[in-house]
Design goal:
With about 375 residues, this protein is α/β, with parallel strands linked by helices. The chain has 14 helices and eight strands. The chain has an eight-stranded mixed β-sheet with strand order 1-2-6-5-4-3-7-8. β4, α12 and β5 form a beta-alpha-beta unit. α2 packs across α5, α5 crosses α9 and α11 packs parallel to α12. The longest helix is centred in the first third of the chain and has 19 residues. The N and C termini lie far apart (about 50 Å).
Length: about 375
Amino acid sequence: MTEKQLSRIEDAACPTCGSCAGMFTANSMNCLTEAVGMGLPGNGTIPAVMSARIRLAKEAGMQILRLLENNIRPSDIMTDQAFKNALAVDMALGCSTNTVLHLPAMAREANVTIDLDLINEISKATPHLCSLSPAGQHHLEDLNRAGGVTAVMKELSGAGLIETDCLTVTGNTVEENLITVRNLDDTVIRSTDNPYHHEGGLAILFGNLAPEGGVVKQSAVLDEMLRHEGPARVFDSEEDATQAIMGGHIKKGDVIVIRYEGPRGGPGMREMLTPTSAIAGMKLDTHVALLTDGRFSGGTRGAAIGHISPEAMQKGPIAIVEEGDRIAIDIPAKTLTLKVPDSEIEQRFLKWSPPEPKITHGYIARYARSVSSASEGAVVK
């Protein structure tokens, strides 16, 4: 296309204010802020252009003063069970993989522990009720019209999948908040008896390639890619991988590995929207998987597995993957396997040494030295 045509598309791509209208990272965390009890009902889904959003902002300011008067603090709300409720809503909505970073990081500040096994446990028990962009045809305004986050919680509470006695910023419990709530469109918010998938939207994979886990948005993976095995195509940066994809060097069946883009190696885990978009745009998302110790945009779909931990910079096994190694992905079984003998892996590590840090001075260098694994929320220790 011409530059003029591209400019016209760019100018029309985001015609209003607010975040992108899919269940991407910003909307995911806004919905989960409501689900954990720290946002007023409607906070997660009311469109930016509606007067209801302005009213909610005023109500929030007034409610802060009521919370202060009643000595209700964040620590009273963000309890162990509240985070489990948020994870259940996460699975029902099919939220961004980045929630697996943000929720554990939030929980840590509240002295609550979320480990990745817990995420799989809740995902297995919680059906996927909403098929929202990028995995489906519905958008945030549809979810809002159907009743929003509280309507999703109402469906889950009916199946005993959330704890309803948790306190929220309304000053009431979840149960009290849900008394008058109902699902206004069961094509947008399905019942627990008729879900899109019987498991939640996210899955954590473990194996010799990811001893501490890696995350995938399984609700956005096509059936034919739920199980996949292929040769590794190894890149030490996002840019190198993108160049190979755009240059036509990736073939059907390949498993792209992008490493040294984790919390420490990146540093900071850039979101890899460019390579994942290129894979989808070149019609390879039904044939190619992508693994990384970095993270993805919430708009990513397909067999894109991120947050592989330990990361390459911390001597994770992803550091010693070589071009052509066979990698097996089994999302239903929650496994990620480098098909190389343990003895060979040990020999490779004897020859391995970490590369020089990309940034060696200033605050970013300090961050890289002190940041935790993505499996712990990539928090600064």
